[in-house]
Design goal:
The chain has five helices and 13 strands. The protein is an alpha+beta fold and about 280 residues long. The strands form four sheets. The chain has a four-stranded mixed beta sheet, with no helix packed on it. The N and C termini lie far apart (about 105 Å). The relative contact order is 0.12.
Protein backbone atom coordinates (compact mmCIF):
# COMPACT_ATOMS: atom_id res chain seq x y z
CA UNK A 1 0.00 0.00 0.00
CA UNK A 2 2.82 2.37 0.87
CA UNK A 3 4.36 1.69 -2.51
CA UNK A 4 1.10 2.55 -4.24
CA UNK A 5 0.81 5.84 -2.33
CA UNK A 6 4.41 6.68 -3.11
CA UNK A 7 3.82 5.97 -6.78
CA UNK A 8 0.69 8.13 -6.85
CA UNK A 9 2.55 10.94 -5.10
CA UNK A 10 5.37 10.77 -7.62
CA UNK A 11 2.91 10.85 -10.50
CA UNK A 12 1.17 13.87 -8.96
CA UNK A 13 4.46 15.75 -8.66
CA UNK A 14 5.38 14.86 -12.22
CA UNK A 15 2.06 16.11 -13.56
CA UNK A 16 2.33 19.26 -11.47
CA UNK A 17 5.82 20.12 -12.75
CA UNK A 18 4.82 19.19 -16.27
CA UNK A 19 1.78 21.49 -16.18
CA UNK A 20 3.85 24.27 -14.66
CA UNK A 21 6.51 23.86 -17.32
CA UNK A 22 3.90 23.99 -20.07
CA UNK A 23 2.35 27.08 -18.49
CA UNK A 24 5.75 28.77 -18.25
CA UNK A 25 6.43 28.01 -21.88
CA UNK A 26 3.04 29.43 -22.86
CA UNK A 27 3.74 32.61 -20.90
CA UNK A 28 7.18 32.95 -22.47
CA UNK A 29 5.71 32.58 -25.93
CA UNK A 30 3.11 35.26 -25.17
CA UNK A 31 5.86 37.59 -23.95
CA UNK A 32 7.85 36.92 -27.10
CA UNK A 33 4.80 37.75 -29.19
CA UNK A 34 4.46 41.07 -27.38
CA UNK A 35 8.14 41.87 -27.86
CA UNK A 36 8.10 41.46 -31.64
CA UNK A 37 5.46 44.18 -32.11
CA UNK A 38 7.66 47.01 -33.46
CA UNK A 39 6.96 50.72 -33.73
CA UNK A 40 6.84 52.42 -37.11
CA UNK A 41 9.39 55.17 -37.70
CA UNK A 42 8.15 58.60 -38.75
CA UNK A 43 10.23 60.21 -41.53
CA UNK A 44 9.96 63.94 -42.19
CA UNK A 45 11.23 65.21 -45.54
CA UNK A 46 10.10 68.45 -47.16
CA UNK A 47 9.92 68.73 -50.95
CA UNK A 48 13.05 70.69 -51.95
CA UNK A 49 13.17 73.82 -54.07
CA UNK A 50 13.86 73.51 -57.77
CA UNK A 51 17.54 73.20 -58.66
CA UNK A 52 19.39 74.22 -61.79
CA UNK A 53 20.89 71.83 -64.33
CA UNK A 54 24.47 71.10 -63.25
CA UNK A 55 23.79 71.36 -59.50
CA UNK A 56 24.99 68.39 -57.48
CA UNK A 57 22.58 66.89 -54.96
CA UNK A 58 23.64 67.80 -51.45
CA UNK A 59 22.37 67.87 -47.89
CA UNK A 60 20.26 70.85 -48.95
CA UNK A 61 17.98 68.42 -50.81
CA UNK A 62 18.84 65.10 -49.10
CA UNK A 63 17.94 66.15 -45.58
CA UNK A 64 15.30 63.74 -44.28
CA UNK A 65 14.90 63.32 -40.52
CA UNK A 66 13.41 60.53 -38.39
CA UNK A 67 11.94 60.43 -34.90
CA UNK A 68 14.58 57.87 -33.82
CA UNK A 69 18.30 57.59 -34.52
CA UNK A 70 19.49 55.50 -37.42
CA UNK A 71 21.06 55.45 -40.87
CA UNK A 72 19.76 57.15 -44.03
CA UNK A 73 20.60 55.79 -47.49
CA UNK A 74 19.60 58.04 -50.39
CA UNK A 75 18.91 57.16 -54.00
CA UNK A 76 20.29 58.97 -55.94
CA UNK A 77 23.15 59.72 -53.57
CA UNK A 78 24.83 62.98 -52.58
CA UNK A 79 26.93 64.36 -55.43
CA UNK A 80 24.65 63.12 -58.20
CA UNK A 81 23.95 65.57 -61.05
CA UNK A 82 20.44 65.12 -62.44
CA UNK A 83 19.23 65.94 -65.92
CA UNK A 84 16.52 68.48 -66.64
CA UNK A 85 13.04 67.38 -65.56
CA UNK A 86 11.32 65.90 -62.51
CA UNK A 87 13.04 63.11 -60.58
CA UNK A 88 12.22 60.88 -57.60
CA UNK A 89 14.40 61.05 -54.50
CA UNK A 90 14.18 58.04 -52.17
CA UNK A 91 15.52 57.47 -48.69
CA UNK A 92 15.74 54.11 -46.92
CA UNK A 93 16.07 54.36 -43.16
CA UNK A 94 17.40 51.70 -40.80
CA UNK A 95 16.92 52.43 -37.08
CA UNK A 96 19.74 51.71 -34.68
CA UNK A 97 17.24 49.83 -32.49
CA UNK A 98 15.98 47.24 -34.95
CA UNK A 99 14.38 45.16 -32.20
CA UNK A 100 11.83 47.82 -31.40
CA UNK A 101 11.52 49.86 -34.60
CA UNK A 102 10.74 49.01 -38.20
CA UNK A 103 12.80 50.13 -41.15
CA UNK A 104 11.18 52.86 -43.26
CA UNK A 105 11.40 54.56 -46.64
CA UNK A 106 10.10 57.75 -48.19
CA UNK A 107 10.03 59.13 -51.75
CA UNK A 108 9.63 62.75 -52.83
CA UNK A 109 10.24 64.55 -56.12
CA UNK A 110 12.58 67.31 -57.23
CA UNK A 111 12.49 69.44 -60.38
CA UNK A 112 15.66 70.32 -62.26
CA UNK A 113 15.41 73.37 -64.50
CA UNK A 114 17.65 74.72 -67.23
CA UNK A 115 18.38 78.43 -66.91
CA UNK A 116 18.95 80.85 -69.76
CA UNK A 117 19.55 84.58 -69.88
CA UNK A 118 16.24 86.37 -69.49
CA UNK A 119 14.47 83.55 -67.65
CA UNK A 120 12.34 84.44 -64.62
CA UNK A 121 14.00 82.98 -61.55
CA UNK A 122 14.18 83.69 -57.82
CA UNK A 123 12.45 87.04 -57.86
CA UNK A 124 13.88 88.52 -61.05
CA UNK A 125 15.42 87.85 -64.45
CA UNK A 126 18.58 85.84 -65.08
CA UNK A 127 21.05 88.48 -66.29
CA UNK A 128 24.33 86.59 -66.26
CA UNK A 129 25.54 83.03 -65.71
CA UNK A 130 29.07 82.65 -64.34
CA UNK A 131 31.70 81.22 -66.66
CA UNK A 132 34.64 79.07 -65.59
CA UNK A 133 37.06 82.02 -65.35
CA UNK A 134 34.70 84.18 -63.26
CA UNK A 135 35.04 84.81 -59.52
CA UNK A 136 32.29 82.79 -57.85
CA UNK A 137 32.24 80.04 -60.50
CA UNK A 138 31.86 76.56 -58.95
CA UNK A 139 32.46 73.52 -61.11
CA UNK A 140 29.33 71.38 -61.39
CA UNK A 141 27.03 74.18 -60.23
CA UNK A 142 25.27 77.08 -61.93
CA UNK A 143 25.51 80.53 -60.36
CA UNK A 144 25.19 84.06 -61.62
CA UNK A 145 23.31 87.33 -61.35
CA UNK A 146 19.60 88.06 -61.23
CA UNK A 147 18.36 91.55 -62.08
CA UNK A 148 15.19 93.01 -60.63
CA UNK A 149 12.29 92.74 -63.07
CA UNK A 150 12.12 96.50 -63.45
CA UNK A 151 13.99 99.67 -62.57
CA UNK A 152 13.42 100.47 -58.91
CA UNK A 153 10.91 103.07 -57.81
CA UNK A 154 9.75 104.41 -54.45
CA UNK A 155 6.02 104.87 -53.87
CA UNK A 156 5.56 104.31 -57.62
CA UNK A 157 6.39 107.96 -58.18
CA UNK A 158 10.12 108.41 -57.59
CA UNK A 159 12.02 106.63 -60.37
CA UNK A 160 15.46 108.27 -60.35
CA UNK A 161 17.86 108.60 -57.44
CA UNK A 162 21.10 110.19 -56.37
CA UNK A 163 24.12 108.04 -55.58
CA UNK A 164 24.64 109.69 -52.21
CA UNK A 165 22.43 110.79 -49.33
CA UNK A 166 23.68 114.36 -49.23
CA UNK A 167 27.02 113.36 -47.70
CA UNK A 168 29.67 114.16 -50.30
CA UNK A 169 32.72 112.14 -49.27
CA UNK A 170 34.55 109.06 -50.47
CA UNK A 171 33.38 105.76 -49.02
CA UNK A 172 36.27 103.93 -50.72
CA UNK A 173 33.98 101.55 -52.59
CA UNK A 174 36.22 100.81 -55.54
CA UNK A 175 35.30 97.17 -56.22
CA UNK A 176 34.61 96.67 -59.91
CA UNK A 177 34.57 92.91 -60.50
CA UNK A 178 31.87 90.27 -60.22
CA UNK A 179 31.05 89.67 -56.57
CA UNK A 180 32.12 93.12 -55.31
CA UNK A 181 28.80 94.94 -55.66
CA UNK A 182 27.38 93.59 -52.42
CA UNK A 183 30.40 94.70 -50.40
CA UNK A 184 30.31 98.10 -52.10
CA UNK A 185 26.61 98.48 -51.31
CA UNK A 186 26.97 97.56 -47.66
CA UNK A 187 29.83 100.04 -47.26
CA UNK A 188 27.83 102.82 -48.92
CA UNK A 189 24.80 102.28 -46.69
CA UNK A 190 26.97 102.05 -43.60
CA UNK A 191 28.56 105.40 -44.46
CA UNK A 192 25.54 107.25 -45.87
CA UNK A 193 22.91 105.98 -43.44
CA UNK A 194 19.14 106.09 -43.91
CA UNK A 195 17.54 107.81 -46.88
CA UNK A 196 16.30 107.37 -50.41
CA UNK A 197 19.39 106.91 -52.54
CA UNK A 198 20.64 104.28 -54.98
CA UNK A 199 22.35 101.78 -52.68
CA UNK A 200 19.75 102.07 -49.91
CA UNK A 201 16.73 101.42 -52.10
CA UNK A 202 18.45 98.28 -53.40
CA UNK A 203 19.04 97.04 -49.85
CA UNK A 204 15.42 97.81 -48.95
CA UNK A 205 13.99 96.11 -52.04
CA UNK A 206 12.06 92.86 -51.47
CA UNK A 207 10.38 90.75 -54.15
CA UNK A 208 8.86 87.27 -53.72
CA UNK A 209 10.50 87.15 -50.27
CA UNK A 210 13.98 87.69 -51.78
CA UNK A 211 15.61 90.48 -49.79
CA UNK A 212 19.33 90.20 -50.59
CA UNK A 213 19.47 92.75 -53.43
CA UNK A 214 22.28 95.23 -53.94
CA UNK A 215 23.59 97.95 -56.27
CA UNK A 216 25.82 96.32 -58.89
CA UNK A 217 29.50 97.06 -59.38
CA UNK A 218 30.69 98.32 -62.77
CA UNK A 219 31.37 94.87 -64.28
CA UNK A 220 28.17 93.45 -62.82
CA UNK A 221 26.06 96.22 -64.33
CA UNK A 222 27.77 95.85 -67.71
CA UNK A 223 26.84 92.14 -67.63
CA UNK A 224 23.23 93.11 -66.96
CA UNK A 225 23.38 95.65 -69.81
CA UNK A 226 24.77 93.03 -72.21
CA UNK A 227 21.94 90.67 -71.29
CA UNK A 228 19.45 93.22 -72.64
CA UNK A 229 17.66 93.63 -69.31
CA UNK A 230 18.28 97.38 -68.95
CA UNK A 231 16.12 100.09 -70.47
CA UNK A 232 18.58 101.43 -73.02
CA UNK A 233 17.19 104.97 -72.93
CA UNK A 234 18.66 105.73 -69.50
CA UNK A 235 21.89 105.94 -67.52
CA UNK A 236 22.24 103.69 -64.45
CA UNK A 237 24.21 104.00 -61.25
CA UNK A 238 26.83 101.44 -60.24
CA UNK A 239 28.08 101.00 -56.67
CA UNK A 240 31.66 101.79 -57.70
CA UNK A 241 33.16 105.17 -56.86
CA UNK A 242 35.47 106.90 -59.30
CA UNK A 243 39.16 106.51 -58.42
CA UNK A 244 41.84 108.68 -60.02
CA UNK A 245 44.03 109.76 -57.14
CA UNK A 246 42.31 113.11 -56.83
CA UNK A 247 40.40 113.05 -53.50
CA UNK A 248 38.18 115.99 -54.41
CA UNK A 249 37.01 114.35 -57.64
CA UNK A 250 36.67 110.91 -56.02
CA UNK A 251 34.44 112.37 -53.30
CA UNK A 252 32.06 113.82 -55.87
CA UNK A 253 31.76 111.14 -58.58
CA UNK A 254 30.80 107.53 -59.18
CA UNK A 255 30.62 105.27 -62.22
CA UNK A 256 27.58 105.05 -64.46
CA UNK A 257 26.68 102.72 -67.31
CA UNK A 258 25.19 105.01 -69.94
CA UNK A 259 22.53 104.26 -72.53
CA UNK A 260 25.20 102.95 -74.91
CA UNK A 261 26.65 100.53 -72.37
CA UNK A 262 29.74 102.67 -71.78
CA UNK A 263 31.26 103.36 -68.38
CA UNK A 264 31.33 107.06 -67.57
CA UNK A 265 31.42 109.07 -64.35
CA UNK A 266 28.83 111.50 -63.04
CA UNK A 267 28.44 113.57 -59.87
CA UNK A 268 26.83 111.63 -57.01
CA UNK A 269 24.16 114.31 -56.73
CA UNK A 270 22.67 113.52 -60.16
CA UNK A 271 19.38 111.59 -60.31
CA UNK A 272 19.67 108.41 -62.39
CA UNK A 273 17.95 105.05 -62.84
CA UNK A 274 18.70 102.10 -60.52
CA UNK A 275 18.48 98.38 -61.25
CA UNK A 276 19.04 96.03 -58.28
CA UNK A 277 20.71 92.65 -58.62
CA UNK A 278 21.21 89.59 -56.45
CA UNK A 279 23.43 86.53 -56.58
CA UNK A 280 22.11 83.02 -57.17
Amino acid sequence: MKKIFALLFALTLLLTFSCKSDLDKTIEKEVEKEEIIKTDVIITWDIPNDIVVGTELSETQLNATADVSGTFIYTPEIGTVLSEGTHDLTVNFTPNDTENYNTASETISITVINLNIGDSYQGGLVAYIYQDDDPGFILGEIHGLIASNEDLTVNESISTFTWYNGNMFSTNVIGTELGTGLTNTNSIVSAQGVGTYAAKICVDYVYDDYDDWYLPSTIELIKVYESGELTIAYDYWTSTEYENGNPAYENDNAYVVDLGGTLITKPKSVNLKVRAIRYF
